[in-house]
Structures are given as C-alpha cells and as structure tokens.
Design brief:
The complex is a heterodimer.
Chain A: H1 7-10, H2 14-24, E1 45-49, H3 56-72, E2 76-80, H4 87-95, E3 102-106, H5 108-117, E4 128-136, E5 139-144, H6 152-161, E6 167-170, H7 176-188, E7 193-196, H8 200-208, E8 214-218, H9 219-227, E9 231-237, H10 253-259, E10 267-272
Parallel strand pairs in A: 1-2, 1-3, 6-7, 6-8
Antiparallel strand pairs in A: 3-10, 4-10, 5-8, 5-9
Chain B: H1 2-12, E1 16-17, H2 25-45
The chains are: A alpha/beta, B mainly alpha.
Chain lengths: 276, 51
C-alpha cells in the first residue's frame, strides 16, 4: 500500500495542497486518485509553458498535465507563451493570482538565465514557490564529422592553436548552449565564434553540411546523427556525471562532465506566489 | 504502473526523471539558487543581453 498524503491537513491550505500535488504529479500512482479532495481544485489548472509548443518544456508539461488531470479530476490547460528566452511566459505566470491554479514550468533559460539577460519585473526566487524538479535532458557537445580532433582534449588543443577560427552553433543568443560555450571558453582559455540559429534544427543542418565546426544541443536531438556517423560526439553534459570526482583544471572528459552538472536543460515547475 | 508509464513517456521525449528524493520543492529551490549563483556571473561577464 502506497503511503497516502494527509489530505485532511493539506486541504486547509489550498495553495500548499496544490504544490504538494504538483510535486508528486509525475509520480502519483493510479491508486492515489483523489476523488475525496473536494475543496481543491474546483476549476481548471493552467500550466504556462514559456516556449513554443513541441519543444522539450512543452512535451514535459503535457505529460505532467495529463497525469495531473487524472489525479485531480480537473482539466489542465497548457498555455504556450513564448518569446524573449522564456521571460514573457514567466512574467505572465508571475502576474497570475497566487491561488494555486497557475503553474509555471520551464528550464535553464526561463527560470535561471532570464533574470540576468532581460530586464524583467519578476524575481525568480521571491515571486514563485518551488514545486518540483521534474526531468533532466543532457546537452551534448558535437562537431562536424571531418573535424580532426578525436576527443575533448584534442578539441581543446585545436581551439587553442586556432583562436577565433572555430565556429560554434547555438540555438539562440542566451540559450544554455551559448552560456555553456562561454563558460567553456572561460575555463579552457579558448576563443571561437558563436553563431546563433533559430532553434536546434537549422543549427544541426549547418553542422551536417560542415559549415559550422561545433555545436552544443540536447543529446536527444543529436543522437540520431551521432549514431549514423554524420557528426562527432565529444561529451555529454549530464546531471549524473557530477558524481565523477576528478580534480578540476584537468582537460579530461570528466572535467566537462563536472562543469556540465548544471547544464542539462532542466525542467522546472513552479507555482506562482508573489510575496507581499 | 502510472510511474512506469510516465517514466517511459518522458524517456520517449529524451527526458529523465530526477531521483525521487530530488522531486521536492526544497531540491528545486536549492538547485535554482545554485544555478543563479553559477550562471549569472558568466552571463554578465560576457554581457549577454536580450534582443
């Protein structure tokens, strides 16, 4: 028998109840449907996705939303409010009533970077209540297939020997890929040019056609091309690799994995709660 | 059952679920604060500004 929430206690504070529910939405077993929780929710819940439909945050929101609908017995509306690195959608969520009926979901760009890149009126930490870490989706560093560097050390050596010659495709200015690239430059003493694209697909295209040397994108987007030998994979920036405990400062795969710990395009969910 | 189904659906879109002990408000708050401390200086140092 799965341990049940203390609904009696939770129902006294609707917002908290919602946060607890949302925190568990992705893992609630079917047996925990809560027909008995009458007081909340009594109307549809909205999840604001600050990116276009079809992207990773949207995909996660739809899976979570469906599970919530089954568990809560209320419709869950996915609202895509895209633009400005996710900051427009986050701002919309920050303005919503803090009653537990609006959730904000997002990732590194929207819920970490936006406060530093855009002039925003929300405070990422103070205007929202955290709900749950949902999923992680590692980034991958890859290059065009005829690049001479066979591994990360050789890649860094090549970039060092050829300052400002290498090109690095990003899916946009201020994307996790772009910011990681700067972090990488800072930590390796390398310089190369960033080429911003509108999303991952055109970036991959130009790596395939060898017009671009390198890129850093979600591993799930690059893996098919890696498997078919069309691009060369150098490293995966995985949340799990943080357990590897190599000394920082050495140019090894492990170093990048450690750097990478904060880099996977994480998906956050947050309840909106503007504090007085 | 629902667990496995949801996990599979996340896997289908290239997403991995955080370990259970990290699926909490506290873990999100801690991670978000740490990420802000880590990345804002990198962004500001490079003067990345939104268009």
């Amino acid at each position: 028998m799965t341990k049940q929430f203390d609904w009696e206690d939770e129902m006294k504070v609707p917002r908290r109840t919602f946060l607890r529910l949302a925190a568990s939405a992705a893992v609630l077993p079917a047996s925990m449907r809560i027909a008995s929780a009458q007081s909340f929710p009594t109307r549809p819940i909205t999840i604001i996705v600050p990116f276009p439909a079809g992207g990773p945050a949207d995909a996660v929101a739809r899976i979570v939303g469906e599970r919530m609908r089954a568990a809560l017995g209320q419709p869950v509306i996915i609202e895509n409010v895209a633009g400005a690195g996710g900051s427009i959608g986050v701002a919309r969520a920050a303005r919503a009533a803090p009653d537990g009926y609006t959730l904000s979901i997002g990732q590194l760009n929207s819920h970490v970077f936006s406060g530093a890149i855009y002039s925003v009126r929300y405070d990422l930490l103070k205007d929202f209540d955290p709900v749950a870490l949902l999923t992680t989706n590692p980034l991958m560093i890859a290059g065009k297939k005829d690049l001479l560097a066979k591994n990360m050390s050789e890649l860094v050596a090549w970039l060092k020997a050829n300052p400002d010659r290498g090109s690095f495709a990003t899916p946009g200015v201020g994307s996790p890929s772009h910011v990681w690239g700067i972090y990488f430059q800072n930590n390796t003493g390398t310089r190369f040019q960033f080429v911003p694209y509108r999303g991952a697909a055109p970036a991959i295209q130009d790596v395939l056609s060898a017009q671009i040397d390198l890129t850093c994108l979600q591993a799930s987007d690059l893996l098919p091309q890696v498997r078919s030998g069309n691009v060369r994979a150098y490293a995966i920036l995985s949340a799990r690799s943080r357990h590897s405990n190599r000394r920082p400062g050495r140019i090894t795969g492990a170093l990048y994995a450690v750097l990478a710990w904060s880099l996977g395009a994480r998906t956050y969910a947050q309840g909106n709660h503007r504090q007085a | 059952m629902g667990d496995l189904l949801v996990r599979q659906r996340f896997a289908d879109v290239g997403q991995e679920i955080f370990p259970r002990e990290q699926q909490t408000p506290e873990a999100l708050a801690a991670l978000q604060s740490a990420e802000i401390e880590k990345w804002w200086p990198v962004i500001k140092g490079a003067n990345i500004r939104g268009e």
